[in-house]
Structure to design on (89 residues):
């Protein structure tokens, strides 16, 4: 038995590894970065992740605030125009 979610994550790890190898011409096995350097890389990645999380939290708040009393949702398109959609029940 295989877990489809774990398989999907494994595939993404492999794809991500290949992107890194192509971009940086090396693997995580490289020896030119010391322990402090690796920790700084990790810290920077975590800071990026925190920024992504903050953005998504704002999107969730905006979605929650966009639902009106009548069950319709107003959202802005990329051009700034208002769109209304009916909430499914």
């Amino acid at each position: 038995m295989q877990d489809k979610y774990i398989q999907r994550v494994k595939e993404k790890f492999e794809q991500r590894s290949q992107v890194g190898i192509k971009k940086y011409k090396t693997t995580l096995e490289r020896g030119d970065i010391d322990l402090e350097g690796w920790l700084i890389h990790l810290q920077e990645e975590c800071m990026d992740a925190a920024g992504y999380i903050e953005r998504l939290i704002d999107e969730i708040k905006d979605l929650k605030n966009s639902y009106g009393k009548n069950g319709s949702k107003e959202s802005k398109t990329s051009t700034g125009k208002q769109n209304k959609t009916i909430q499914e029940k």
Remarks:
- The chain has a mean pLDDT of 86.
- The first strand starts at residue 72 and ends at 76.
- DSSP finds two helices and two strands in the chain.
- The beta strands are 72-76, 82-86.
